[in-house]
Amino acid sequence: MSQAWQQLTSSLWSVQSEAFILHSGVILDSSEACLIDPGLFPHEIDGIAAFAAERGMSANTMILTHCHWDHVLGPERLPQIPKTAHAEYSLQATGRQGRRVMKQAKDWETDQRIARSTPFVVPLPDVTFEETMSWSVGELALQLIHAPGHAPDHLAIYEPKSRMLWSADMLSDLEIPYVCHSLLAYQSTLELLSQLDIQVLVPAHGTPAFARADIAARFKMDAAYVEELRSSVTRAIHHGKNVADTVADCANMPYRHRQSNERSHRMNVESAYLELGGEADSPRIGWQGLVECID
Ligand SMILES: [Zn+2]
């Protein structure tokens, strides 16, 4: 099946995986190409590299936005392309999270009947950065911005010429914030990214937004959600509630697409409960509980 590419700015194209809503990106400028989280199926990864090659561009950079399984399957098929990620990515990849990614990738590939001769190994970056880094693609100067909260190594990509923000696993119109790492970090990241002048917003798991009012609304909605999450969980802890009662207290909080996001909302509440000082009998709750269960 041929891939349905979408041109989002003068330099950015994106393509959605056949597996589920996950966008990979290609930034092209002056005969250079930068791939963003190329995935998921082997033929899709090949197609993303071919997209650049067919336009006479040499794909000489790849950015991995964070170490979650659905963002890191591409490098194995494109070993010649150097990979850039946040410094924390390496710690994630070589620790328990890396083992979880390997298991999730294996489970998904088994489910999809994707044959392989050697086991999947989480790719490691060739270049890393701490807070921000300028990254050139042709004449463009991308800004890589550490954007933790969803994951400790999560990054966003800002392209100032077209005022494009690739927000990776944030600012979706379909998913609520998945606060897998830290609620306080998530709030700071939203605040940081909201200072940017954004004309095109591209989430990995959602619909791109092109109107400033829509972009502002997404920031506002996610900021309101995480703020209410924080205040509701803080209040529950203050009243001595256990995690189950806190989850029940937060069940009626407003959030979008309730059915598909119900589990993620519960995970957010459980994680926030631990982060904000609640005491639970087991650490195996919330998002971190999924990682703890690996060993
Ligand atoms: Zn993620």
Describe the structure.
The protein has 295 residues and is an alpha/beta fold. The protein has helices spanning 42-54, 87-94, 96-111, 183-194, 212-238, 243-249, 258-275, 286-292; strands at 5-7, 12-16, 23-29, 32-36, 58-63, 83-86, 127-129, 132-137, 140-146, 155-159, 164-168, 200-203. It has a single domain (5-211), classed as Metallo-beta-lactamase, Chain A (4-Layer Sandwich), CATH 3.60.15.10. The chain contains 8 helices and 12 strands. It has a 7-stranded mixed β-sheet with strand order 1-2-3-4-5-6-7. Strands 8-9-10-11-12 form a 5-stranded mixed β-sheet, with no helix packed on it. Helix 5 (212-238) packs across helix 7. The protein is globular, with a radius of gyration of 19 Å. The model has no long low-confidence stretch (mean pLDDT 94). Zinc ion is lined by residues 66, 68, 150-151, 169.
Largest sheet: 7 strands, mixed
Number of strands: 12
Bound ligands: zinc ion
Total domains: 1
The number of helices is 8
Q: Order of helices and strands, N to C?
A: EEEEHEEHHEEEEEHEHHHH
Based on helices, strands and strand pairing, what is the structural class? alpha/beta
Overall mean confidence score, pLDDT: 94
The CATH architecture: 4-Layer Sandwich
Radius of gyration from the alpha-carbon trace, in angstroms: 19 Å
CATH topology: Metallo-beta-lactamase, Chain A
- Spatial order of the strands forming the largest sheet: 1-2-3-4-5-6-7
> Which percent range describes the beta-strand content?
15-25%
Q: Shape, please?
A: globular
Considering DSSP H and I runs of 4 or more, what fraction of the residues is helical? Answer: 25-40%
pLDDT < 50 runs, ≥5 residues = none
